[in-house]
Design goal:
CATH class of the largest domain: Alpha Beta
Bound molecules: pyridoxal-5'-phosphate
Strand order of the largest sheet: 2-8-7-6-5-3-4
Radius of gyration: 21 Å
CATH topology of the largest domain: Aspartate Aminotransferase, domain 2
Oligomer: single chain
Number of strands: 13
Largest sheet: 7 strands, mixed
Shape: globular
CATH architecture of the largest domain: 3-Layer(aba) Sandwich
Strand content: 5-15%
Structural class: alpha/beta
């Protein structure tokens, strides 16, 4: 029995029991052969390699048909690989991208230009791309405010402009159908009830890319390093489960979000009310002191809507991009619901948060 209510599913998700079970045979000690290197030629190695390929196919089922799935250590690595995959002169990226995209783009040496978002936190599908952009990067679902971006249209327009399209689908993978028409898609297991430490880069069929991590030539020479059959199997099982439960999970989260919204009716939603993933509720209340709320509600795991809550002092880039004043950004919280969150937990947490806010004089 948990002694806290976990409402931080954008940060990470709990491991699905099915994912854990799929990993166990590959975490064996000397008495069983599950520890074998999947790149070894002997029988045990080939058995492990077969498990990796089953997992690759399960993960591929969450992604567009065709294309290649390259296993990585997570989405940050996948994003870095995509940005270094082809020579780039200029990158256009949305103003609400995750720091993995922002900092990988900046570090690439390419010229970086921001695509603005509306006050709803959505990129205009007809936004002008900067002249000469050869990569456009827009995420599927925003991690801070949950807004869903028109990525299919943006990808189509990027191609018309002669640019490639990278989609960080970390928060949408296994929850929504995959982005269409992208050239690169980055995903990670730990946001879809799989293990931490593994993710994937999907690359459109026919696109030739440069190796990223150099070494023994694993992953067809594109990403060297010994794969973990346990992590692959856990990712694959989580992906298969997410695919099978996509509608059920969506309905469950929609019900939780509607109830939370009703209890917290006096709070303002950050970003679009309609173009949003129901597992993410980003809210603000005038005068709210986030550190005090976190301390008063310490049995609830939730986040600030702003980086100041994590100690940097700066207001959130995403919340300021949608036009919030720094003070409004600091008055924000993010509630993240998940597959295993119960209605009872949502009601208890929302009443407790609202009462604690009232006690602050908000
Ligand atoms: N992109 C988004 C939208 C995320 O939410 C995260 C995780 O916080 C990442 C990228 C990075 O993923 P990983 O933790 O697998 O490196």
């Amino acid at each position: 029995m948990r002694d806290f209510i976990y409402l931080d599913h954008q940060a990470t998700t709990p491991l699905a029991p099915e994912s854990l079970e799929a990993m166990l045979p590959w975490l064996s000690g000397p008495e069983a052969i599950g520890f074998a290197n999947p790149h070894s030629m002997h029988r045990a190695g080939r058995v492990a390699a077969a498990a990796v390929e089953v997992a690759r196919e399960q993960v591929a089922q969450l992604l567009p048909k065709g294309g290649r799935v390259i296993f990585t250590s997570g989405a940050t690595e996948a994003i870095n690989q995509a940005i270094r995959a082809v020579p780039l002169g200029a990158i256009a990226l949305s103003a609400v991208e995750h720091s993995a995209v922002v900092n990988a783009a900046l570090a690439s040496g390419a010229e970086c230009q921001e695509l603005p978002v509306s006050k709803d936190g959505v990129v205009d599908p007809d936004v002008d791309f900067p002249e000469g952009a050869d990569l456009v990067a827009v995420m599927q679902v925003n991690n801070e405010i949950g807004t869903i971006q028109p990525v299919a249209r943006l990808a189509e327009r990027a191609h018309e402009a002669g640019a490639l399209f990278l989609c960080d689908a970390v928060q949408g993978a296994g929850k929504l159908p995959p982005p269409e028409d992208a050239d690169f898609i980055a995903i990670t297991a730990h946001k879809l009830y799989g293990p931490k430490g593994i993710g994937a880069l999907w690359v459109r069929e026919g696109l030739s890319i440069a190796p990223w991590i150099h070494g023994g030539g694993q992953e067809s020479g594109l990403r060297s390093g010994t794969l973990s059959p346990a992590l692959c199997a856990g990712f694959g099982a989580a992906a298969a489960l997410a695919k099978a439960r996509m509608d059920v999970d969506f309905q469950h989260l929609s019900g939780l979000a509607a109830r939370a919204r009703a209890i917290l009716a006096r709070w303002t939603v950050n970003g679009s009310e309609s173009a949003r993933w129901p597992g993410n509720l980003s809210l603000r209340l005038a005068g709210l002191n986030f550190p005090r709320l976190l301390s008063d509600c310490r049995t609830i795991a939730f986040s600030a809507g702003s980086a100041c809550g994590s100690g940097t002092g700066a207001p959130s880039r995403v919340l300021t991009a949608i036009g919030l004043e720094a003070v409004e950004a600091r008055n924000s919280i993010r509630l993240g619901f998940g597959r295993y969150t119960t209605m009872d937990e949502v009601e208890t947490a929302c009443h407790a948060l609202d009462a604690a806010a009232t006690a602050q004089g908000c």
